[in-house]
Amino acid sequence: MEGLLSSAAGRHETLPEGFLLPPEQRPPASSAAVALPVIDLSGPRDEVRRAVFQAGTELGFFQVVNHGVPAEAVRAMEAACEEFFRLPACDKAAFYSDDAARPNRLFSSTTYGAAGERYWRDCLRLACAFPIQAGAAAAAAWPDKPAGLREAVEAFLAPARALGMELLRLLSEGVGLPAGYFEGDLSGGDVVVNVNHYPACPDPARTLGLPPHCDRNLITLLLQGHVPGLQVAYRGDWIRVRPVPGAFVVNFGHQLEIATNGLLKSVEHRAVPDAARPRTSVATFIMPTDDCLVAPAAELVGSGDQPRYRAVTFHEFMRVYKTVGARRESVEKAFKI
Q1: Average pLDDT score, the chain
Q2: Where would I find the Fe2OG dioxygenase domain in this sequence (predicted)?
């Protein structure tokens, strides 16, 4: 289980050489006082729709509160995930794998690095077809420790996905598409959860927990925890995202950008570790089916507007994405017309 940072043997007093990144790969965050909008989803629907669309088009990231995911489900999910990473290494060893094709696994660093870089992160990846059945076969492939982890994930995923679908309906209306445009194959793939764990780092200024990247999916919902670490690209700088208790951070993946012909953009973001405190975040990804053809919506390329992206199946997109890497410029070069 080489490389598993969160095991007892993985605690370092100095930063191992393999994690040292050159300065140009870790520019510091801006000191500018820019904050992500925090949107109360319990407000009048027209106001919420405008706020979601405005935040999405201006920053590509926003936070939502009063989102309908039960607080007890959020607390149980966060607690179970944090407890998983406190387990002894021997209890996690059977789940560890470097095989990126496995839908359920524990791994270290990241799948984004194309040049052998290593990043200060462990990740528990869980996938499940939707709708989730109680005691579903997918859940049987999840870790059986700690006790209650499987139940917490099952109880969390259904309302979290429902929140994502409601946000997609609001965004559909905001860009002029039918409210249900993103239902069906565009959102019918597995629900995927990445539980990212960033142990306390002896030299956080010289490494990253996750490199700059754009998400590959349709829409992402993140519980970022109480320790700061998420940073978002904004006008040539990096802005720090302030944790808001109980909130989800929302951002768009490449599939949403392609489908809206660039009206909604997938924005680069990264994670930085903390010198004193471990950080655990929970990212929920809504994905298309593998054979779904993703293309600019016909409603958004009429009246003289041209499609900015070529149509591509999600399977083909992922094949190219894994080859060129997750940086925005690389993906745009591969799929933009």
Answers
A1: 90
A2: 188-288
Torsion sign, CA atoms 316, 333, 219, 212: positive
Pairwise CA distance, residues 314 & 323, whole Å = 14
Distance CA 39, CA 58 (A): 14
pLDDT tens-digit series, residues 258-271: 999 999 999 999 99
- Neighbouring residues of 209: CB distance < 8 A, sequence distance ≥ 6: 119, 120, 121, 196, 198, 201, 229, 270, 271, 272, 273, 279
* 33-84 pLDDT tens trace: 578 999 999 999 999 999 999 999 999 999 999 999 999 999 999 999 999 9
Measured in whole angstroms, how far is the alpha carbon of residue 210 from the centre of its chain? 11
29-335: what fold? Jelly Rolls (2.60.120)
Cβ neighbors of 89 (< 8 A, separation 6 or more) are 1, 4, 7, 8, 9, 10
Q: Which residue has the tokens 């989803």?
A: 41
